[in-house]
Amino acid sequence: MTSAKLWGGRFSGKTDPLMDKFNASINFDKKLYEADILGSQAYAKALARRNILTTEEKDSLVNGLEDVLKEWREGTFIIREGDEDIHTANERRLGEIVGSVAGKLHTGRSRNDQVATDLRLWAREEAKKLLVYLKQLIGAAVERAGKEIDVIMPGYTHLQRAQPIRWSHWLLTYAWSWQADAERLSQIIDRLNLLPLGSGALAGNPFNIDREFLAKELGFKDVIQNSLYGVSDRDFVAEILFWSSMTMIHISRFSEDLILYSTSEFGFVTLADAYSTGSSLMPQKKNPDSLELLRGKSGRVYGQLSGFLMTYKGLPSTYNKDLQEDKEPLFDAVDTLAGSLQITAGVLSTLTIYPERMKQNLSIDMLATDLAEYLVRKGVPFRETHHIAGEAVRLAEDRNTTMDHLTLEDFKQLHLAFEDDVSLIWDYEKSIENRCSLGGTSKQTVKEQIVKLTKWLNE
């Protein structure tokens, strides 16, 4: 090759060494090594189909690229000075292996459509891995929900005790959130699975390259129909970063609940030692550091999204070097999610719950709504029963007792519709079983949720 730089022929002066470092992306885009090689192998085959390469040249390039791929996988690939990005590094090493025929590989291709293809290939495969981790997490929640369906606990609004619910119902809250995350990720995978290669620098490929062949060879469902769009679109990066942020929101909220539930004040759960740490000063401490890290890493992912959007928002059409800033946020978010999903599944699978402690934290005032509903079943309008139930709560508080210790006469003073069967209200299990509409916390409706999620996972 006549120049150490792929683009160096137009320049006679030397680049500032600081600019070389500033411009280089090899330290992070080397993560794309496999996608870059797969794309180049497919492109060599496409060039041969247009008789730009002979069969022997195509085979030489494909086999040489396989050798480069093996070096990357085995950790023996050596990055040299002048390897400013993964494309330069791979092409340089290919030339060392197969000789000058390596110079034919880039015919009609630009790093603009090359990197867009690499990034989509990489993102597609990494997103599939994240989908597996996400389904494993959902599976862990569904499994526990089935085994611990009889455990009841206080449900909260505004962090105040509200109504009794099943522990399983709480678990499935997050299982459904994560299922929505999985659906979103599947849709993103489908949308990004379009081929940019063959778009050239911006105007298209001059050698009538068979882009449908390239798409099939690389597993893309279709080709991008506009070359300008092909080299400049990074919406899929923004979508993955947004997806990562939403998923981390759900993980962070789950973590926050468990951090609270693991405190001495709640005492509902204890984390396994594998996901806890101690204090360097206080020997008695068992800290939920795994959950705190998950909660903290959510902010990191949100930052990657906002940072990339600020880069992306003002770019003129086609490729601009600003787009080099798409990779580090994407790589970091994907790595963070891969770790976070697996740690969350580990925490969830191994934590210990304390059903008796949960039950002890139920209180009769949590059945005030049931008292109102009792009167509704007697024909009293709910707006009136809500007020009456509130008066019963206040009466019990004034007497420094609980509503289940009020007499029938006390209740009749509030409304004549009260009868002896009012005493049957003070049953947490019955309250839960009354919530039997689809999506409620009764045993049957929780079982129905488990069946639906299990069916979805198996599909």
Automatic annotation (TrEMBL):
Catalyzed reaction equations: 2-(N(omega)-L-arginino)succinate = fumarate + L-arginine
EC number: 4.3.2.1
Gene Ontology MF annotations: argininosuccinate lyase activity
Fumarate lyase N-terminal domain segment(s): 9-303
Coiled coil feature spans: none
Domain of life where this protein originates: Eukaryota
Single GO cellular component term: cytosol
GO biological process: L-arginine biosynthetic process via ornithine
Residues in Argininosuccinate lyase C-terminal domain copies: 366-433
Pathway in which the depicted protein is active: Amino-acid biosynthesis; L-arginine biosynthesis; L-arginine from L-ornithine and carbamoyl phosphate: step 3/3
UniProt record similarity statement: Belongs to the lyase 1 family. Argininosuccinate lyase subfamily.
PANTHER family per record: ARGININOSUCCINATE LYASE
Full protein name: argininosuccinate lyase
Organism: Funneliformis geosporum
